[in-house]
């Protein structure tokens, strides 16, 4: 990788190109084209790389080693400390005016910013600050860009008259049904009944054409499910969904909200205990699930896990065909029997219109107490997430958006609303996203906006899953959930002819990202190019004092509390205690806690360095140390206590789970590998099979405060130093 890099692009020789995998017959021509594109030998690394990327010298079909050779050579002399992260993508002065934000700025910039407005790139920072300081103006413009139809228009965009509401009152008096907004034609977005709403493919049918569902067909199926729900449940009932992200899952999700019920989102990877806790906290009356999950040609039981976790009524969808592959428990019903309750009902439906702050979806995020926080999404939340996607990932009506995820994670609802409220088409693959079959679906569906998490990209890269496929229709890539690996992202963007990767970092309780890439700023691997539109924040030092906005620094982030779409309550915890208590006052308002430690670099990029609390991010799933420790403490009778911490690899990438253990008999010897296997088994069985234990160590005792609080941060730092020293040996 970087070891094969030369001191500059000009030092690359034809033999280096051959060594990187290009045939000898092509190496000389590539070398000549590279030198021609690179321009002056005196040019800086970013200028050289920008010229090479723009010239198209590097192509998707070239070996990754060749992309590595050129990229790392171009930036071999780059002083990251003095200049910040090296950019790999640069906005075009012409194309920027065709982006969603660019068009908005071109129309409104001169009026809002006056004579200081120049163009979308030069004036972006100024316009961002305007969006923070003038949220009423910004949101009144953005609402007009989305398929949001009010039954009753809001009296105001933002009211701050009630000081007890720290986040303000948004869209006061507005009444709507956000699911209906997803299902109606929208002339301003050129969406008609015949527009394609969903493209999908079932795993195993990868050589067949993709399937398509029109907006009219989607609306008809949603109405059928809504009628069936009305026949069985009471308005306002919480109803859970624990299935893979399929067409049926999307239909059920929209039908529940259209009918005035509340979705309870549960990930299909959870163990029975986790399913049960979420059903209990939400008081869900029923749960939609599947008999099996089909992944990589294997059938993984799902219904059996659900009925171990809850006694609530289950509606069971067959994973394959029309018939279930299991016997149902008394009181449960098949998908076919459920739909029969809609027989004879009207083909139309009257949506339940509610205030904008009405509860529509209960999602879950792990807290530091061990019990998952029940986070309520109102009708503001979909508007926020769709507007962020519109502004930052530039999703447009002509786009086909695909983001492998699940309704149990926040990206599930986000991708639904981000497509349907912007007029884009949603692409779903009914199967494992880890291999070539999914990557072929991306090609065959004509995906233009592809989202991912870093572990997915790592899998695609390791398997060379995009080899021979055409991903050139992709114009924007997105990533979220965990820290990105620089080389994995180099591979990803190279497969799509060096399109931008928009890094996103936020939270379920925000319904959005607070830091995010933008197509109006240069992008750097593993870094966020700025805050999301209308989001203000400061970085706090250890005394809670904000650093100046224009200097490189590192500390806990404090969000400005007037945040469109953010929660103002939790269903099973004290909202103020979780998000506000102990946070400093800034410009007359108490800052909102998010919990991230972030670094602002030279050049104004942001890098997430970890959590201020004891929450960790494992494979894109936020969980608490307490949850893992609770499970591991019971893994073996010899254990006195355990401590779970996450470690960031020195080269970047996802966090690794490390578990430290104190034995009851401090003098006893114990096989660490055996203990590691026991921890892994306990976590897979009782918590989440996606969590992998990377490191286990037995210690004599844990560092603690005077009040006996476990100092996990000290453990984390000690372990990181130890592993770093090992890697140098």
TrEMBL record:
Q: Per UniProt, what is one Pfam family of this protein?
A: AMP-binding
Q: What Gene3D superfamilies is this protein classified in?
A: 3.30.300.30, N-terminal domain of ligase-like
One molecular function GO term is: trans-cinnamate-CoA ligase activity
GO BP terms: phenylpropanoid metabolic process
Keyword Transmembrane listed? The answer is yes
The EC number(s) this enzyme carries: 6.2.1.12
Per UniProt, residues of the AMP-dependent synthetase/ligase domain are: 190-556
What is this protein's record name? 4-coumarate--CoA ligase
